[in-house]
Amino acid sequence: MPIAIFTLMRLGPSLAYATASIFVLSMLLLESYPSSVSAWWLHMTILPVMREPIYLLLAVPGIGIWSAMVLLMLASIFGIRVALQPQRHHRSGFIHAHIALIATGLTMGRAAVAQAGLSDFTLPQLQRGDWSFLPLSYSPLATFLFISVFAACIGCHLRVIKRTLSA
Fold this sequence. Notes:
This protein is mostly helical. The protein has helices at residues 2-10, 12-32, 37-58, 65-84, 90-112, 140-166.
C-alpha cells in the first residue's frame, strides 16, 4: 500500500507536464476551431495554471508550438518511467520534479501579481503586469498540481537524505 501511494506521489510532475501539453493542444484547437465552445472551455480552464510556463517555453528560439507539445509529452512519459522505477533514476527524477515545481510555482507567483498595466509610473507595491485575469485562488487544478508536484519534490529530498545516511 505505501508503495502505491509513493508511486502516485511521484506521478505529480508527470501530471504537470501532461497538463501543459493539454494546454498547448487547446491552443492548437483554438487555431483550428476558433468558434468551438469546447476548445475555449479547455483553454480557459488551463490558462491560469499553465500560461506562464508555456509562454516561456514558446519564447525559446527554435521552439514552435508542435515541438513544445512533443517535448511536454516526452517529459510526461519520462515522468511515468521515473515514478515506476525510482531506484534507477535518482538524479533525473530529482531534476524532473524540481523543474515542474519551478514551473507551477512560477505560475502561482505570477498570478499573485497579475494586474492591469500602469501608465508611466510604478509604485513598489504595484508592479507592472498585463491585462489578463488569472483567477488562481479559485483554481482547484492549480492547487492540486502544486501540492502534488511539491509532494514529489519532498519525496526526492527524502530519498537523497536516505541514500546519504546509508552511505
